[in-house]
Design goal:
By secondary structure, the chain is of the alpha+beta class. It is built from six helices and 14 strands. A hairpin with a 4-residue loop joins strand 2 and strand 3. Bound molecules: zinc ion (2 copies).
Length: 329
């Protein structure tokens, strides 16, 4: 499907700034109407008839011939219909500005890293996620100690008292996320958090207009361990935070048993900027809701050489490299 402007026939897209559907050709708001895809098949652009190069899991893309944003009906419907999404809240211009502010003082970045032409290649992508809801029975059984010391005469006494500590909590975990995309590196998505899940909005395909999207391509069971690990850690932290006043605490048994579980499917917004430099790709990702940047800093070898005589620059280079390794900037 494609969303077209009723006034001028242009391609209406979702504007993160206006939080509305917007026609960039005649500036009208909410003037869109939905045009269904032609019956010729997924790859055929409903607007110009050109063949769109789509990847296996794409659910929204851009036609390279007429530049219209196309949403692939059968990939957002039925079993593939997301329940909710967080719409992009940071537009492309804001994202470019943020990358420039963050990296313009980075002396070692190659000259065209922040060029308009390069930055303009970034794409807004909706990444598929599974959201797990759990009702958990969390139990802690262990031993706490309290230590009391005092001095009498020339002797010092220490008394250690042992207490049996038990906690039994019912905890409801709402929307523990794990990405369902083969393409998105897990480490990146973990660093990209948090998203504000209260911003989740009922799915409507028009939010995808103006962006790229994937439908889920990893089964909910396959990625669930990531959500379970987070849930178990949180459950243990909650149990322990409910115990206080002891000098030490030893766990004999600590469990988080899932009593009820359900899974929901949704999409989260990410800006993706793939910078190629000397045959290497440096992917940068920006949280499309909060603006948090995750990426690996490109280092310009020539520039490092220019400055390598000065110790301060050498240290800066090392720090940039360390940032690069962590992948968090
Ligand atoms: Zn228009
Ligand atoms: Zn087209």
């Amino acid at each position: 499907m494609i969303f077209k402007c009723k006034n001028c026939g242009g391609n209406s897209i979702y504007s993160p700034e206006k939080k509305k559907m917007y026609c960039p050709y005649c500036d009208s708001i909410d003037s869109q109407e939905r045009k269904e895809s032609a019956s010729e098949g997924l790859e055929t652009c409903p607007e110009c008839g050109g063949t769109i190069p789509i990847e296996q899991f794409d659910s929204a893309s851009k036609c390279p011939y007429c530049d219209n944003y196309i949403i692939f009906d059968e990939r957002v419907e039925g079993d593939y219909r997301p329940k909710f999404l967080i719409p992009f809240q940071m537009g492309k211009d804001a994202c470019k500005k943020s990358l420039r502010e963050r990296f313009q003082k980075n002396t070692f970045a190659p000259a065209d890293f922040l060029s308009e032409a390069r930055l303009d290649s970034m794409q807004g992508v909706y990444v598929p996620f599974w959201f797990y809801n759990y009702d958990v029975n969390a139990v802690f059984e262990g031993t706490g100690t309290k230590v009391r010391s005092w001095t009498s005469g020339d002797r010092r006494y220490t008394e250690t008292s042992y207490y049996s500590v038990g906690r039994d909590m019912e905890i409801a975990f709402d929307k523990m996320p794990a990405d369902a995309s083969v393409k998105m590196p897990d480490s990146v998505m973990d660093l990209m958090e948090p998203y504000h899940y209260q911003e989740l909005t009922d799915f409507d395909p028009q939010y995808l207009s103006g962006f790229y999207a994937e439908f889920y391509n990893m089964p909910a069971e396959q990625v669930e361990d990531r959500a379970k690990t987070k849930m178990t850690e949180d459950a243990k932290a909650l149990l322990r935070s409910s115990v206080s006043g002891y000098s030490s605490l030893h766990a004999d048994r600590e469990t988080a048993q899932i009593m009820n579980r359900n899974v929901e499917y949704g999409l989260l917004p990410v800006w993706r900027y793939i910078y190629s430099y000397k045959g290497e790709e440096y992917p940068f990702y920006v949280n499309g809701e909060t603006g948090k940047i995750v990426g690996t800093a490109p280092l310009s070898g020539t520039k490092v050489l220019v400055y390598s005589g000065a110790l301060w620059f050498f240290l800066t280079a090392i720090m940039v490299a360390v940032n690069g390794i962590l992948g968090l900037l």
